[in-house]
Amino acid sequence: MSRTSAPPPAPVDRRPDDVTLSHGLKQRHLSMIALGGVIGAGLFVGSGAGIAKAGPSIVIAYALSGLLVMLVMRMLGEMSAANPASGSFSVHAERAIGPWAGFTAGWAFWFLLCVAVGLEAIGAAKIMTGWLPGTPEWAWAALFMLVFCGTNLAAVKNFGEFEFWFAALKVAAIVIFLGIGVLAITGLLPGTDAPGTANLSGDSGFMPMGVDGLVVGLLASLFAYGGLETVTIAAAESEDPVRGVAKAVRTAMWRIAIFYIGSMAVIVTLVPWDDPQVEQKGPYVATLDHLGIPAAGQIMNVVVLIALLSAMNANIYGASRMARSLIARGQGPQALGKTSGGVPRPAVLFSSIVGFGCVLLSYWRPDDVFMWLLNMVGAIILIVWIFIAISQLILRRRTEREDPARLVVRMWWYPGLTWVALAGMAAVFVLMAREADTRTQLLSSGGLTLALAAIGCARQMAGARKAAAAEAPAE
Question: Are 149 and 349 in contact, with CB atoms under 8 Å apart?
């Protein structure tokens, strides 16, 4: 799939009889997917809970978690630019560690995306029923599922167009919010006075809940960054995968700094951190209401709806491509791996059905089965990041030895910063184990990972025995 001048490696993302995916994504699609991928509903709404726990120090929490995410994206970008593949980190883990690792990372991430699709459908349906009381939530969720399942069943350029415009609207909303916020902070917004540092240093200070509050804010912020990995999956279907990945990774730093850290700084400067509206309405709505912006709630509901629909679209896409890649490498049922017209349609349908199954479980078994699913995916993204870091440590040495020209993107200060990132992930695991809520997620996600790893190892050993038997001379 690579289009560099360097000689391509042996194909690892598909079997010889697998039909290749199309290359229908243009550079503008990939750039906007990368840009909008960091702006999710978790930023618009979920960040309120972090602010309520950490106070103004949420800015530090987002900066620390953002630094870790930048390192992960740099590592993933290095491997994906050197070997673009629709299986992304699953392919890299298989090449670096072994088939069991690719199986574990890939199916864990697929499961995470399917559950996320269900959650996003539920969130979007709640907004619609708020606008149209009396309409059933499940019907809205089903409608959104059908729309984006259909979008992903068609040519990949349709997915790219949807994401291009969704991302453009999200970026515009954040830029306008930041512009209004800066004007208010400097006292240039009509009808407002500059707040100074009163909200940052007053009312129990910058860290009102101490280190414990900062830790809770750190954990909340860390998982708000999910979705950045999609760009490396999508890159394999773009016109120029290497250039697309390289550009996305190199701009990740300023995107995180502006969208996440910048937003949090504006919010806690303008609004008292303990204002109950921050958590109830969401920090962006609370800030605009505080400034007296007309119809702020409805405006932000539209933005949140767009963010949810964008995430649904991207997660159905990402889940289907990850499933196709795994199946093409012999890591799943072959019936789901068929590709026609450059689109893995059975994988799209299966991923969408599992996502809608999660929606139904939220109504049928909200307190046991659905919560069990949520806990199982709670720490999956962190486990995936560990696979990425370990794979990068191994593949960087191998690539430098075999084909250094492929290192279009390089991890900073290798291997030191890779080890720093791994230490940071280990520290997050320790912090999760200390908190009751996140401890349950950690144990549930760990159980799922161990189960997948056991299955992956069993499959790998069975494959090795089969290969050895095939090579053995006949008696």
Answer: yes
Give the residues across from 238 on adjacent strands: 25
State how far the alpha carbon of 337 is from the alpha carbons of 25, 325, 333, 346, in Å.
Answer: 21, 8, 7, 7
DSSP for 211-247, written as a single string: HHHHHHHHHHHHGGGTTTTHHHHHGGGBSSHHHHHHH
- CATH code given to domain 32-459: 1.20.1740.10
**Number of C-beta neighbours around residue 128 at 10 A:** 17
Cα separation of 443 and 433, whole Å?
9
Token reading at 471? 């090579």
pLDDT tens digits, one per residue of 39-88: 766 777 678 888 888 888 889 988 888 889 889 989 998 998 888 888 88
Tokens read off for 387: 């696979």
Q: Is 222 exposed, middle or buried (0-12, 13-18, 19+ CB in 10 A)?
A: buried
Tell me the residue ranges of DSSP E strands in 186-276: none
- What is the rounded radius of gyration, in angstroms, for the C-alpha atoms of the chain? 22
Q: Token digits for 308?
A: 């949810």
d(CA 447, CA 188): 53
Tell me the pTM.
0.88
Read off the pLDDT of residues 419-471 as tens digits, 9 standing for 90 and up. Answer: 999 999 999 888 888 877 788 888 888 899 999 999 999 988 887 778 777 77
> In angstroms, rounded to a whole number, what is the distance separating the alpha carbons of residues 365 and 352?
19
Q: And the tokens for 323?
A: 């499933």
Angle at 218 between CA 214 and CA 50, to 5 degrees: 75
Tokens, residue 401 = 């030895």
* Residue in the structure block whose two tokens are 């960040």: 47
